[in-house]
Amino acid sequence: MNRPYAELYRPNIHGQQLEMERYGMGIVEDSNDMFPFLNDIGLVNKEISEYENIIDRINNLQKRILTTVQLEQIDDLNHQITNLTLKNNDLSKSIKEKIQILLNTAQNNPNKLAQVQSIKVEFKKSVQRYLKVEESYRKKYRENLKRQFSTACPDADEKTVDNVASEMLENRSGGSQMFAQALVKRADPAQAQAVMAEVQVRHESILKLAQTIEELAQLFQDLENMVAEQDSKVLVVENNVEIAQKDLEYGVGDLGTAVTTAKKIRRKKWKLLGLFIAIILVFSAAVIGGVCGSGKCSSSK
Which residues, by range, are in coiled-coil regions (predicted)? Predict the structure, then answer.
């Protein structure tokens, strides 16, 4: 098969090569490539389902933490949540990369592009749900923290309780220490120690939770801004095609100018030839007229 301009290759989500051929100014894909495309869509859907499943598991573990008072059990639940969070982080990166590649390969095919946009919307919903789960847990943990402090320090007013809880959640470096100091000042030493031990076990997971919320917010924003990236090879070929077309246009223009000029030259040549013949005829007539006028024409008879 002749390839008028160039042959393009873009990676699919497996890192393989997806062949696309350029004809004229458009890109025509092989009709058979719909099957691997749908397979890739299926793989992304599968990963999104797994991502959703992990969100549910994290949500259930967080609910258990809020109602558990055994330190070892809390520590074990935190460990499980950490592992699931890391797994979902890896999944989110994988899904995001696959969607970007699918967007790039589908940007010139409306049917494919519609499917990729649809799956991107589904993933955005999953990320948004995960974000709500984490924010809900953070809010419930805050209320739980305030309740613990109020129980240990019944004389503390609402503003003090609220400030202590805020410091605990928002001050990553010194929040735990400030909470402990406020607790020791107001609570019974034994009770303060018990509350503080439980809070410290939970605090590390809360710090990780804050980081997860930030990362999810950034991921959602990245998906909002995600568009098809123009492949560098495509840009090079398009530039070359544009240059070639301009050269062709200039060539056709030059050829047209040359043809027009040649026609003008031919017309001028025939005009000059006609004028030359007319001059010869006039000159011949004048010579003949002069000879006859001198009487030579009659004497020759």
Answer: 44-94, 206-233
